[in-house]
């Protein structure tokens, strides 16, 4: 019967203690745990034989050490010794010493286990982060291999730095070095201007579980981060003036800013414009070639930055520098492939691509231009001088065009001009301006031409955007033929496109 009462008492105490612990905070939880252990010792003494009390107190001491560390264990050992002396009336120094030794031993074991657990958790954290970083690098590499488009590359880089499944920084901004190396130009940024916007973005990403490619596509479609982009793209940082960005570009080393320097005018400009307080600046550097900088910060969650963050972001910045250099080289080769080697105008391949562009689905006009009696010019003066005429004529055409007009060398002595969103009457004015300027220009040996000067004939055609643009070219070619047949050095128009 005594054992039954004792078992029931233990179960009741355990139930009540755990019920209270469920609703309590950490400190109260530990206190309840210790007090319930002490209560069980007292119940055992009241309901069973007191002879077990001396060793049952060890459970109370162990519980106190686990809950309140070394100092708690020493207090528990002292109180247990005092309680044992009061209840038994006998002085037992060896038992009291054993209590203190037991408390110290439990604490030592607890400390060792805790250190092992902390070390394990630390290694697990490092392995988890390294795995995450490798996944980010893999995703970025894959995305970069899919395109040489600079805009897409920049979006990939910035998104990988800020996405929750990426490196997880709140904001990232890229500034690229100008061609002459005299300034840094803000190109692109991702993240909020204010912290409140950041929480909204995180909620949306969390709810929809966007991946890296999904986020990039979403940014392109919705033109998100527009406000931050506008602010950054409006920034041009001259490198002649002393500033923290100039220091980074000159040294080639990353810079960790813990607090804005009030003596640095540029830093204060960033602080007032973007709220940039604590941030990291990483140079985009590859094989000694500096192409710009990337700036990251944690505006939203205010997570402190340290040199570990610098080590994390630097490999990605290097990868970005490599990708940007490759994209630049690719775009340079592409431009060369689309340019006429002699006149530096766009070539026929570029013209074919332009006819497939979206602007040809809107109203536009075409001008075809041909040099009059050019075979006679080449036969009389030679092809070398004929090439000089083509280069000079290309210059006259270029200076006669408006901002959106595009000039191409169509082949031989023929040139074509695309005029987006231009009605026929405006195209005729442009064609007439070109014709008149050519007529008034002194070309080498131009006086030897049949008309005493070098002239051109031009054909104009218009499209409302609904017809096949190649048909519009055919109409312009017919108009050019009419100009040639009706006396040359004139503009003809083909109506009915």
Describe the fold and architecture.
With 497 residues, the protein is of the alpha+beta class. The protein has helices at 2-23, 26-47, 53-88, 93-145, 150-162, 195-208, 212-222, 226-233, 244-251, 265-274, 307-337, 348-355, 374-381, 383-400, 424-440, 469-485, and strands spanning 171-177, 183-190, 236-238, 255-257, 279-286, 289-297, 364-371, 406-411, 414-420, 456-463, 491-494. The strands form two sheets. It has a six-stranded antiparallel sheet with strand order 3-2-1-6-5-4, with helices on both faces. A five-stranded mixed sheet has the order 8-9-7-10-11, with helices on both faces. A hairpin with a 5-residue loop joins strand 1 (171-177) and strand 2. Helix 3 (53-88) packs across helix 4 (93-145). The longest helix has 53 residues, at 93-145. It starts with a helix and ends with a strand. Mean pLDDT is 80; it is low at 20-24. It comes from Jeotgalibacillus terrae. Its EC number is 2.7.7.65.
Please name the defining characteristics of this protein.
six-stranded antiparallel β-sheet; rod-shaped; 16 helices; about 500 residues; alpha+beta; five-stranded mixed β-sheet; GAF-like_dom_sf; EC 2.7.7.65
Short description:
The chain has 497 residues and is of the alpha+beta class. It has 16 helices and eleven strands.
What is the overall silhouette? rod-shaped
Mean of the pLDDT scores?
80
The number of distinct helices, counting runs of at least 4 residues, comes to 16
Query: What does the largest sheet look like?
Result: 6 strands, antiparallel
């Amino acid at each position: 019967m005594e054992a039954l009462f004792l078992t029931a008492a233990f179960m009741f105490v355990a139930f009540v203690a755990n019920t209270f612990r469920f609703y309590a905070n950490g400190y109260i939880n530990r206190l309840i745990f210790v007090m319930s252990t002490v209560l069980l010792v007292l119940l055992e003494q009241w309901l069973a034989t007191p002879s077990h009390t001396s060793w049952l107190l060890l459970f109370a001491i162990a519980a106190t050490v686990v809950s309140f560390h070394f100092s708690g264990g020493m207090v528990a050992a002292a109180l247990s010794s005092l309680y044992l002396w009061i209840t038994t009336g006998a002085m037992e120094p060896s038992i009291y010493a054993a209590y203190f030794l037991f408390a110290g031993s439990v604490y030592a074991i607890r400390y060792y286990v805790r250190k092992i657990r902390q070390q394990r958790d630390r290694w697990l954290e490092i392995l988890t982060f390294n795995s995450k970083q490798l996944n980010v690098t893999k995703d970025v590499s894959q995305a970069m291999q899919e395109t040489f488009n600079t805009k897409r590359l920049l979006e990939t880089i910035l998104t990988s730095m800020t996405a929750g499944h990426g490196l997880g920084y709140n904001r990232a901004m890229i500034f690229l070095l100008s061609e002459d190396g005299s300034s840094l130009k803000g190109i692109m940024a991702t993240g909020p201007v204010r912290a409140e916007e950041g929480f909204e973005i995180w909620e949306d990403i969390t709810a929809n579980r966007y991946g890296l490619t999904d986020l990039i596509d979403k940014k392109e479609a919705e033109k998100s981060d527009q406000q931050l982009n506008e602010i950054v793209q409006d920034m041009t940082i001259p490198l002649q003036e002393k500033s923290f960005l100039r220091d980074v570009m000159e040294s080639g080393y990353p810079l960790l800013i813990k607090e804005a320097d009030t003596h640095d005018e540029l830093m204060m400009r960033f602080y007032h414009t973007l709220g940039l307080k604590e941030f990291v600046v990483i140079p985009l550097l590859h094989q000694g070639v500096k192409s710009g900088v990337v700036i990251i910060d944690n505006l939203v969650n205010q997570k402190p930055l340290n040199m570990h963050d610098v080590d994390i972001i630097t490999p990605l910045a290097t990868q970005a520098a490599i990708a940007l250099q490759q994209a630049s080289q690719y775009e340079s080769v592409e431009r060369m492939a689309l340019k006429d080697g002699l006149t530096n105008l766009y070539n026929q391949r570029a013209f074919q691509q332009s006819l497939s562009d979206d602007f040809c689905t809107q109203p536009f006009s075409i001008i075809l231009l041909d040099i009059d009696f050019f075979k006679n010019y080449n036969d009389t003066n030679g092809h070398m001088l004929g090439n000089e005429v083509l280069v000079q004529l290309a210059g006259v055409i270029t200076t006669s065009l408006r901002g959106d007009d595009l000039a191409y060398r169509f082949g031989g002595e023929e040139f074509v001009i695309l005029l987006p969103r231009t009605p026929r009457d405006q195209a005729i004015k442009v064609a007439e301006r070109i014709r008149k300027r050519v007529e008034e220009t002194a070309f080498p040996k131009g006086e030897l031409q049949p008309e005493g000067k070098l002239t051109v004939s031009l054909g104009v055609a218009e499209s409302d955007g609904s017809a096949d643009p190649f048909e519009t070219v055919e109409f312009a070619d017919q108009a050019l033929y009419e100009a040639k047949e009706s006396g040359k050095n004139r503009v003809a128009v083909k109506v009915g496109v």
